[in-house]
């Protein structure tokens, strides 16, 4: 069974950027004659708004996008995440870390690691060989050890739109966090466990997540999960040239009328390079017809054209 998913964080309503991700993943699932599931990535607990999840589902339904499976909430996945962490601990691939953010920065400075090169610089592996009496704060994945076991620290995978990708996770990221100091599950672990638990075979999401994929590949290997196929889609940029996001106050979508829905869907289709179906002096179209036209275009570009 082919299964795609759309996994928004319910921290607010959908905006133009999240509609692109929703539409792209829906079209891909339809083009592959598979299912499309919605999952609420509310693992961030406090930042998530209970009513936002309901609003997002309502917005999606106005756009003709309905989840084929029961909507899953990441906050209900604790047991699965705990099991995955214990599996990694049992394989000696996860270890507790006592470092504060400030200590990590000091360690990096001592080692001469540039803080500018990466937004969150490489963790230097300070606690890899024990806490030396300090209290555990977070749990980290032992990238160094897993790289040795698998014979390489380079992860290679192919993006269905962007082509071959390669990342040296050990050098560029280091031992990344699985469970945070505040007790919340890290995105990387949660998303890998959820995708596996839900049988997701095709992940379609925004390009800003492309460089997370190598880390997720390593976790999938270490946990004996299958790798889904990945495709990363273009982002909608705000006036400041930055990715449109809730953090930079993206406006909620206007879906107040059929015409508004058409305009929002046309904009999303246009970002994805699909035909906008716009005719002069007629910007209202049949949503079902549009979705089926876009599905055919998508199939020709990404499904039939694939080797
Ligand atoms: Zn540490």
User: Which word captures the global form?
Assistant: elongated
The tally of domains stands at 2
Distance between the termini: 20 Å
The number of helical runs is 10
CATH class of the largest domain: Alpha Beta
Rg, nearest Å: 21 Å
Strand content: 5-15%
Largest sheet: 5 strands, parallel
CATH architectural label of the largest domain: 3-Layer(aba) Sandwich
Which structural class fits the helix and strand makeup?
A: alpha/beta
Query: Which sequence of SSEs, written as H and E, runs from N to C?
Result: EHEHEHEHEHEEHEHEHEHH
> How would you write the strand order of the largest sheet?
3-2-1-9-10
Uncertain regions: pLDDT < 50 for 5+ in a row?
none
Task: Fill in the keyword field for this structure.
alpha/beta; 5-stranded parallel beta sheet; 15% strand; 10 strands; Glutamyl-tRNA Synthetase, domain 3; 2 domains; binds zinc ion; 307 residues; Rossmann fold; 3-stranded antiparallel beta sheet
Describe the structure.
The protein is an alpha/beta fold. It has two domains: 3-76 and 236-303, 3-Layer(aba) Sandwich (Rossmann fold), CATH 3.40.50.620; 79-179, Glutamyl-tRNA Synthetase, domain 3 (Alpha-Beta Complex), CATH 3.90.800. Helix content is 38%, strand content 15%. It is built from ten helices and ten strands. The protein has helices at residues 16-31, 50-62, 78-90, 101-110, 143-150, 169-172, 187-197, 213-222, 258-271, 287-303, and strands at 3-6, 35-40, 72-73, 94-97, 138-141, 154-159, 163-168, 177-179, 202-206, 229-233. The protein has a five-stranded parallel sheet with strand order 3-2-1-9-10. Helix 1 (16-31) packs across helix 9, helix 1 (16-31) packs across helix 10 (287-303) and helix 7 packs across helix 8. The longest helix has 17 residues, at 287-303. The radius of gyration is 21 Å and the shape is elongated. The two termini are 20 Å apart.
